[in-house]
Amino acid sequence: MNILLLGANGQLGRSFVEQGPLAELGSLTCASRDGRRFDGANIEVANFAQPDSLRALLDRIEPQIIINTAAYTAVDRAESEEALAHCINGEAVGHLGEWARRHRALVVHYSSDYVFDGNAARPYTVRAPTNPLGAYGRSKLAGELALQASGAQHFTFRTAWVYGAKGQNFLRTMLRLGTERDLLKVVADQRGTPTPTRVIVDGTIVALQHWLAAAPEARAQMEGTYHLVTRGETTWHGFASAIFELAQTQGVLNRRPFVEAITAAEYPSPARRPAYSILDTRCFEERFAVTLPVWQDGLIAVMHELAFKDSETPC
Ligand SMILES: NC(=O)c1ccc[n+]([C@@H]2O[C@H](COP(=O)([O-])OP(=O)(O)OC[C@H]3O[C@@H](n4cnc5c(N)ncnc54)[C@H](OP(=O)(O)O)[C@@H]3O)[C@@H](O)[C@H]2O)c1
Which of 72, 114, 136, 226 is catalytic? Predict the structure, then answer.
């Protein structure tokens, strides 16, 4: 079975490569925007800004499973580059779906809590009405809809507040700033679920194993949209406070800055973000018979990884 991993250099793509589970399922081909992998290896080129170019790669590799972790993720920049965000997150995903439908391949795609407006008072179910607040959310919703409309077999996993020991993310920014500053002001009126890449990789593999073991009719019932995030909830301020507490006790940082709670209004940014980003994961957990970890356990595992990383600095 041929598996194509798109976006191999992003946080999630890199986690797939480093954790190694896809290579156990089949013959894995990786692709990135420029054909270089994070470790210097030469891999395939897949530039989502030129959606038409993806077809030639797909025709050559002939994947039975396409894992798409590539995305335009610059939430604030998307406000001034909406056409590009839409091309990468929407149009290109539609092209993947079209090819997959014609070749009976499965597309595994990732979307975002930003497809919701954050006005809810209880966790969003997978069927809750979407209403993105900004250009990034609109582009991610366009991708979801394009994939559905393509008629391809697919999983869309909506996730949120993604981070890991590597890549660009909130945790690593906090650890860097924590070495430089005594006081950090962090937003305390946006709620979400910090989700390590490892949880998304593990969850994806469990879903794939169920899908591969199922008969065609059962596969069709299984496919669709799921929420794949950790359990529980916190704010960015709560997450930052937990990061510094753990970083100090695990020896990742030898100091702990004061973390002051501020409102989103006190930290203006080009894109509006949902105030409440909690996704209901029951469909995923029931369908694939797993219990997702609480966000605190996810953080402990990532901090452990940072604490025991050989010579590399954490940020
Ligand atoms: N990060 C979050 O907090 C978050 C939250 C909710 C959902 N998600 C979703 O989760 C998935 C994985 O996100 P992530 O955190 O791993 O993102 P990431 O670290 O920003 O990685 C995105 C990857 O997409 C690649 N990419 C961007 N433009 C491209 C293009 N034109 N052609 C080909 N590749 C391109 C980037 O390539 P370069 O390395 O060359 O720049 C990068 O490797 C995405 O679907 C994202 O929307 C993320």
Answer: 136
